[in-house]
Amino acid sequence: MDTKNIGLRNIEVADTKISYIDGQKGKLIYRGYDILDLTKNSNFEETCYLLLHDELPTMDEYVDFKTELVDVRIIPKQMQINMGNWRNDADPMDVLQAFVAAFGGYYDEEFSTKEASYSRAMNLIAKVPTIVSSWHRIRNNKKIIQPDSNLSHAANFLYMLNGEKPEPEIEKIFDICLILHADHTLNASTFAARQVASTR
Known about the structure:
CATH superfamily of the domain at 66-198: Citrate Synthase, domain 1
Order of helices and strands: EEEHHHHHHHHH
Number of helices: 9
Shape: globular
Radius of gyration: 19 Å
Distance between the termini: 38 Å
CATH architecture of the domain at 66-198: Orthogonal Bundle
Structural class: mainly alpha
Strand content: 5-15%
């Protein structure tokens, strides 16, 4: 008897060592670390390092990584100007998609090297909060707030969004949210992106 697999059900499309979800046991694992341990003992930047490098950073590596992220938070001025041309009621996800795609015009390198892919990953991690917060403020007729290099990733995003530096407990809650959503194995959108990128 033939078995019919609808869509990608029961079809293995890739192996990953980055993260693992066990829905039955309520477990989410990043590079061998339980998500509960990461939310208690780590932060978003350190978790990003873990996901990108397959290990937690030393203190020096952590400082360098944070500095690298901070250095690329700002988006080109022309992109912020272009946001002003969108309708205020445009869907935020459409705006994010358009401006992430527009970054392709600002890079010279291809995806052909690991270094180039890493550079783009760092730029996206750093710049997406700037895009989202800039659009939020523009559509609400507020002045864009530039990134603050003295703030963590989570605190900086909330600051750019609301115009106020968050209280430590609010920063921690949002930081945990970022850790929890940093990677979720090969979901539908990730699969679609990989398919498109592989045909380029």
